Amino acid sequence: MKKMIVVDLDDTLLNSNKKVSNESKIYLKKLKEQGVIIVVATGRIYAAALDATDGAEFVNYIISDAGSCAYNVDNNETIFKNTIHQKTALKILNYFNDDYRYIAICDKNIIYKYSNVKEFNNMIISTMDLNYILKNCKEISHISISLKTNDMVFELYNKLIKEFEELDIIIMQDSSSNRKRMDIMPKGCLKHNAIKKLAEYLKINNDDIICFGDGLNDIEMLEKCGYGVALKNALPEAKKVAKDITKFDNNHNGVINYLKEKVYVD
Predict the structure, then answer these.
(1) CATH, residue 138
(2) pLDDT tens digits, residue range 203-261?
(3) I want to staple 230 with a disulfide (CB 3.0 to 4.6 A). Which of 117, 148, 219, 234 is the partner?
(4) Same-domain pairing of 92 and 52
(5) What residue numbers bound the domain in which 95 lies?
(6) How far apart are the first and last CA of the chain?
(7) Phi and psi at residue 157, to the nearest 5°
(8) CA-CA distances (angstroms) from residue 175 to 169, 244, 254, 261?
(9) What is the model's pLDDT at position 263?
(10) What's the total number of domains in the chain?
């Protein structure tokens, strides 16, 4: 019977330096070679997930964009992909005002940040040109919104969930930050739904899935996957629904130390 390990990235598998430790890479790659299915489930776009994991050689599949898309890492095959219509994205972009830090329109490889703060690297393009964003971002995998205060996030959330019933809109927070933001995906594309869909594709039973997370967008998978484990550094909301909590945090190989002790004992 095939087993699946699902891990969040930021503040779970990644340490505070946004790196995966060599020990984690080696151990997870060994499990992968033994036939265990290793899955990353992240709010990052696919390119950013690959970058953060140095090519993800120890991973079989990446669920990206908080559940919108899934890819086979070994052959770069798209398992499934859901997108947001450009007209919908334009309506959301038109909400932008001085209360916003940015609205990020994302595809598989690039984050287009609609923002007054200029930021450019190999995966982020910052611009106030709506036409440029919509011309270049043809397949929108998710949208992320950051505002200047958490109160503003809740206020906007209450407006958007009424206007955009065709979308999944969640308030997101990582365990290392007090700042909240909104992540917006096509309907039915939260992390747990994507894990369930991938497990069905691979013919893996829910009882054979163990998952690790720390943040608000991990709560549903921690609660509903076969065995959900929150990191020691996880938010209280994540710990509350998890079946167990790691002894070590993300800076001390919390995921693999738990696996070594409780699941795949050396």
Answers:
(1) 3.30.1240.10
(2) 999 999 999 999 999 999 999 999 999 999 999 999 999 999 999 999 999 999 999 99
(3) 234
(4) no
(5) 86-186
(6) 20
(7) -55, -45
(8) 19, 17, 14, 24
(9) 78
(10) 2
pLDDT band at residue 114 using 50, 70 and 90 as cut-offs: very high
And the tokens for 122? 């190999």
Same domain, residue pair 29 and 155: no
Domain closes at, from 128, 153, 186:
186
Question: Is residue 130's pLDDT more than 80?
Answer: yes
> What are the distances in angstroms from CA 222 to CA 86, 177, 212?
32, 20, 7
Q: Which pair of tokens denotes residue 215?
A: 């943040």
Give yes or no: residues 106 and 168 share one domain.
Answer: yes
By C-alpha distance, which of 169, 167, 130 is closest to 153?
169
Q: Is the pTM of this model over 0.90?
A: yes
Residue 219's pLDDT is 96
Q: Model confidence at 83, in pLDDT bands (50, 70, 90)?
A: very high
Question: How many Å apart are CA 74 and CA 230, to the nearest integer?
Answer: 28
* Tokens 């929150």, located at residue: 230
Structure tokens at 3: 């087993």
Residue 158 has a CB neighbour count (10 Å cut-off) of 10
Are 195 and 209 within 8 A, CB to CB?
Answer: yes
pLDDT band at 264 (very low <50, low <70, confident <90, very high): low
Q: Are residues 220 and 130 in the same domain?
A: no
* Residue 65 and residue 155 in one domain: no
Q: 202 and 76: one domain? A: yes
